[in-house]
Amino acid sequence: MTDAPEVSLSELPDWLAPVAKMAPSVRPEQLSRFLPPDSGGRPSAVLILFGQGEHGPELLLMERARQLRSHAGQPSFPGGAVDPVDGDPEGEGPLRAALREAQEETGLDPLGVQVFGVLPRLYIPVSGFVVTPVLGWWREPSPVRPVDPAETARVFSVPVADLVDPENRRIVTHPSGFRGPAFLVSDVLVWGFTAGLIDRILHFSGWERPWDRAREVPLSARA
């Protein structure tokens, strides 16, 4: 087991200050209506990695392979289940898991990532995952790529400016009755758990701009 990454606020860029300030105070019910059950659920973690790119602040995402059984073709944060090698799922395990999974999926060097916050655990009912969102600053960027094309179709970064642009905001609707925020960015539709988290981070960090919630995108029953 590797040493757990230290949560540190030192030397963050000024533009990340609103996210760092938001993280310790936000409550789980402010992020999602799906909260972890009292018992059960598989511990997991995702890495919400902010970097400084050619077009300003950006967020790292990946697109899942279309042949997967679960969440096929959907954009997502890097992440996955907390394994025994990661340690205590109630302690530092999710931090290790977020960085380990990100390395396994995108090839990034975890030594270049500074963990600066952890958001409350949330629940994904369709998969049974209890998810810890880990906030990271890509202090020393490294090359990324789909490490296993059978699992990951592509790895890409989205400028925060595109995420907050009202022209790129949508509401998705699903035959199941699900309605939620979405983003049309980088030639993909980001929706579901990932879009919901991005939406709440933008809102509680004060980055959100007014957008038209009447602009809907219907999803097929297979989505």
Structural overview:
- The termini are far apart.
- The strands form two sheets. Strands 1, 2, 3, 4, 5, 6, 7 and 8 form an eight-stranded mixed β-sheet that branches. Strands 11-10-9-12 form a four-stranded mixed β-sheet.
- The protein contains five helices and twelve strands.
- It is 19% helix and 32% strand.
- A hairpin with a 4-residue loop joins strand 6 and strand 7.
- It is α+β, with helices and mostly antiparallel strands.
Uncertain segments are none
For this entry, what is the oligomeric state of its chains?
A: single chain
Cα-to-Cα separation, first versus last residue: 37 Å
Give the helix level as a range of percent: 10-25%
State Rg.
Answer: 16 Å
Major β-sheet, in short?
A: 8 strands, mixed
Order of helices and strands: HHEEEEHEEEEHEEEHE
Mean pLDDT: 93
What overall geometry do the principal axes of the alpha carbons give? globular
Structural class by secondary-structure content: alpha+beta
Q: Indicate the proportion of strand residues.
A: 25-35%
Figure out the total of helices. Answer: 5
Give a count of the beta strands, DSSP E runs of length 2 or more.
12
Organism: Streptomyces silvisoli
Region (Disordered): 71-93
Pfam families: NUDIX
Domain Nudix hydrolase: 40-185
